[in-house]
Amino acid sequence: MHRTVLVLLLGALLVFAPPAHAYIDPNAGGLLFQLLAPLFAAAVGAWLFLRRWISAYFRSLWRRLKGQREE
Amino acid sequence: MKQVPTLRFRAALAVAATALVLLYVPLTVLPILDGLLFAAPWIDVARDVGLLAWLALLPATALALVAWLASRLLARFGEERASRWAWALLLLPSLLLVIRQAGRMGWQWTRTVFDVQWQLAPATKLLVLALAAACLVALWRRFGPRLLPAGVQALQGAAGGTTLVLVLALCAIAWNPPHWVPMPSAPVSGGQVEGAKRAPHLIVITIDTVAAADARACDPATVTMPRLARFAQRAHCFERFYTASNFTTSSVSTQETGLLPWTHHANQPDSTMLAAVRGHTVAAQLRADGYRTHSVTDNFLASPRHRGSYADYDSSWVTRTALSGDRYRRWASRLPNTTLPRLLAISLAPLNWADSRLHRGSSSPYESEKVYADVTRLLKQEQPNGRPQFIWAQTLPPHSPYLPPASTRYRLLPPGELERWSDLLPDNIRYRQEQQPLVDKHRLRYQESLMAADAALGDFLDQLERDGWLEHSIVVIGTDHGESFERGFLGHAGPDVHEALVHGPLVIRLPGQQQGQKHSEPVSQADLAPTLLDLVGAPPLPHAEGRSLKPLLAGSALAPEPVFTMTLERQSRFRPIRQGRFAVIDGHEKLVLQMPEKLVHLFDLASAEGESLDLAAQRPERVMALRGLLEQQLQAAERRRQGLGP
C-alpha cells in the first residue's frame, strides 16, 4: 500500500512539471539535438541490455593487451 | 529474490555519480546544445558542461553519504535488508530525476521532429497522470524486486565511464580555466581621491519589460506610471524610443555598447557579446575617464557577468530574489565567462516546482525595492571617495509572473482571477485567438505590476533627491524591451518585432533640469551609450552604430535618421547572417524583413490601422528603398562579423 502511494506521488511529480517561467531557449530542439538525442538513448539502451557482453569484450581486450591468457 | 550488493560508501558514490554525470547531465544539456554552440566555441561549451559534471558530484556525494549512514543505522535488521533499503534510498531520487529529464527530452524531441503542438487540457493532464501512475505501479509490482539489483549493477558497471568523463572534463577546465569574479568584484574606495574628475554622476535605470503603450510615460495623465510621468515633466521625454531587440540579453548589450545585435551577437539567452566588443562599452570609456562603474540588477541576463563585459565594471552586483533556484544561479555568476549559471538553472529546474508553490497566491518573487536598496547602499559607500559614479540599475518588475504586490493588486482586475502563479499562462508563448480575453486580463495584472514598479521608482528618485544625488546626476530611465499581449503572442523574446515588443519609454534628465521637453522623433537604444559619453565629455565609442542625442537635449534639431530593431535568436554567430527578423523605422514608416523567407511588410505607424495593415503592395518604391537600406546594413554587419571573430 505504502509503495503504491509512493509511486503515485512520484508519478504526480513527473506529470505535473511546472511552467518554465523563464526565457525558453529558442534553439532548444535544434538539428544537433535531433541527431544526438536518439544516439544517446540508443547508447544507454545498449548498455542496459548488452552490458554483460560489452564488459566481457573489454575485459578480454584488456587481458589480451596485458598479455594474459583467457580463462 | 535477487540479492543487492552490500552498500559501501565508495560503491554508493560510484552509482550516484554515474546516474548524475552519465545520465542526468547529458539529458539536461542535450536539448539546449544547439543554442550553446550558436553562442560559444565548442571548447567553452565542453568546459562548462565539464564544470556541471564536477558540480554533480556534490549531490552525488550527499546521496551516497545519506545512503551509507542509512545502511549503518539499519544494519541491526540484517545486512541484506539494510543494503536493500539504503540502495533504494540512493537510487530512487537519482532515477526519478533521470526519468523526469528523459521524459522532457523525449517530449522535446517528439515535438521537434514531428512538429507536434499539443497543449493538454487539465482533464487530459489528469488522465495522463492516472495512466502514468498506473503504469508505474504495474511496473513496480512486476519488476520491482529485480529492478533494484539490476539498476545498481548497471550503474556500477558504467562507473569507469564516469571516471573517464570526469577526467576529460578536468582537462577541458584546465585547458580553458574560468575566471572567478567575487561579488562585488572590487573593494570600494573609502576616502577622497586627490584630483578626482569633477563630472556629473550617471544614474541609468532600466525597468525591465515596459511597453510604451502601457507606460505612457510622457503623458501626465497616465494611470500606470504617474511617478515617472511627473519626473518626465522636468526632463526630456522620448515618445518614440526603440529597443534594439525584444529580450534582455540582446537589447541590454546594445545599450551598453552602442552596437546593434547584428554586431555584438549576444542574441540567445546564453550568449555573451563577441569577445572583440566586450571592451567596447560605455562603462569601459567612463572608467578610463575617471568614473567608478557599477551594475546592480536582479536580472541575470542584464548583468555584465552574464554578457561578458564584467571587466569594465568596478562592481557588478546581482540582487537576491525570492526564487530558490536563483540562489545557485547567483553563486555560479561568480564564474562570469561561463554558461554555468544557465546550465545550473536548467539542471535545478525541478526546484521551480517548489518556487511556484511557495509563491502561490503571493506577490512576484522579484521586488524593485531590493535593487534600489542595493543601489542606495552602494551610493552611500561610494560617496566619500569623491569620484563621479556611473551606476546602471536594472529591475525585473513588471516582468512576469504578473503578481503585483498588495499595494496595487486589484486596481484594474478585481479579485478572483489570475491571483496565483499557477493561474498564469506560461511566458513567451503564442496563443489562440479565443484566448484573447484571458490574455487581456493578463495585461491588466501586468499594468498593476507596472504601477508597483513605478511607485518603487518614484520612492527611489525621492531618495536620490533627499540625499543630494539628483542635482548632480544625469538620470536616464528606460526599458530593455516591451511586452506583448496582442497579435497572438504573450510576453517577449521570440521572433516578432511588433511595436508592443520594441517600443518603450525613455526619459533623460540633466543635472538641475526643471523644464520638460517631449521629443517625437524615433531614437534607438544604440543612441544611449554615445549620448551618455557625449554628455560627460568622455571619449566616444569608436564603432558605435548609434549617435549622440546631445544636440536634441541642448534644444537643437537633429537630422532624422532611421532606427533598427531585430531579433536573431536562431542565428549562430559562427555562420553568415541568414536567420532573423529585422525592422527599420523611418519616420512613421516601419518595414519588417523576415529571413530566410525574405518576406517584407510595410506599416504606417501614424495611420489608424498601424501594424494591422500591410502596405507593402501599395508602396513598392518605399519597400524598395527601405529594404535596400536594410540589406545594405546587413551586408555591412556580415563583413563586421567576419572581421571580429567569435
Task: Give a short synopsis of this structure.
Chain A has 71 residues and is an all-alpha fold.
Structural overview:
The complex is a heterodimer of chains A (71) and B (646). With 71 residues, chain A is mostly helical. Chain A is built from two helices and no strands. Chain A has helices spanning 2-15, 31-66. The longest helix of chain B is centred in the first third of the chain and has 36 residues, at 79-114. In chain B, strands 1, 2, 3, 4, 5, 7, 10, 11 and 12 form a nine-stranded mixed beta sheet that branches. In chain B, strands 13-14-15-16 form a four-stranded antiparallel beta sheet, covered by helices on one side. In chain B, strand 3, helix 12 (304-307) and strand 4 form a beta-alpha-beta unit. Chain B folds into three domains: 9-175, no CATH class; 201-560, Alkaline Phosphatase, subunit A, CATH 3.40.720.10; 580-644, 2-Layer Sandwich (Arylsulfatase, C-terminal domain). By secondary structure, chain B is α/β, with parallel strands linked by helices. The termini of chain B are far apart. Chains A and B meet through helix 1 and helix 2 of A and helix 1, helix 2, helix 4, helix 5 and helix 15 of B.
